[in-house]
Amino acid sequence: MDKVAVARYQRVSEASAPPRDIELTAFGLVNRLLAEDQDDRRRLKALGKNHELWSLLVKDLARSGNELPAGLKQQLVALGVWSMQYSVKAMCERLPVEPLIEVNSNVVAGLRSQATAPAAARLAAPIAV
Questions:
Q1: Angle at CA of residue 109, ends 93 and 15, nearest 5°
Q2: Distance (Å, rounded) from C-alpha 70 to C-alpha 105?
Q3: How wide is the angle at C-alpha 31 spanned by C-alphas 42 and 5, nearest 5°?
Q4: Which of 92, 94, 105, 124 has the highest count of CB atoms within 10 angstroms of its CB?
Q5: Which helix (H) or strand (E) holds 16?
């Protein structure tokens, strides 16, 4: 991915939906592609899309404006690097795609729990009288 693609991703993200919703949708689409019964061409396309998704996310995590906590960013970058490397290796060596689906599913679960955490915190907070 080049700077133009990252800029396009950021513009679309900011203009169309909250970033978390876009990330959830993207991981869902990639996981569906990976989970499909695939011939070689579709398998390579799915692995390429997984690599592309993680590449965009890692680049976004490296932006100076990214406000995630440093520790979380480091963990996500490590997952992203692993996922991109595994995707390439799976293309060459026909490794199973299930580890990628599992990592992506865990990220989706984390994104969903973050989305509900603020609402739960507001409900649990004491009411000022």
A1: 95
A2: 22
A3: 80
A4: 105
A5: helix 3-16
Centroid of chain to Cα 93: 24
In this structure, what token pair is assigned to residue 8?
């396009």
Chain centroid to CA 118:
21
Q: Which residue has the tokens 């199973």?
A: 96
CATH code of residue 78: 1.20.120
Tokens 């990252």 correspond to what residue?
6
User: Are the C-beta atoms of 75 and 103 separated by less than 8 Å?
Assistant: no
> Can you read off the two tokens belonging to residue 21?
């919703």
Nearest to 105 by CA among 8, 28, 22: 28
Give Cα separations from 34 to 46, 78, 108 (angstroms). 5, 21, 15
* pLDDT single digits (tens) 39-92: 999 999 999 999 999 999 999 999 999 999 999 999 999 999 999 999 999 999
Query: For residue 62, what are the domain limits?
Result: 3-114
Whether residue 44 lies inside any domain: the answer is yes
Binning pLDDT at 50, 70 and 90, where does residue 37 land? confident
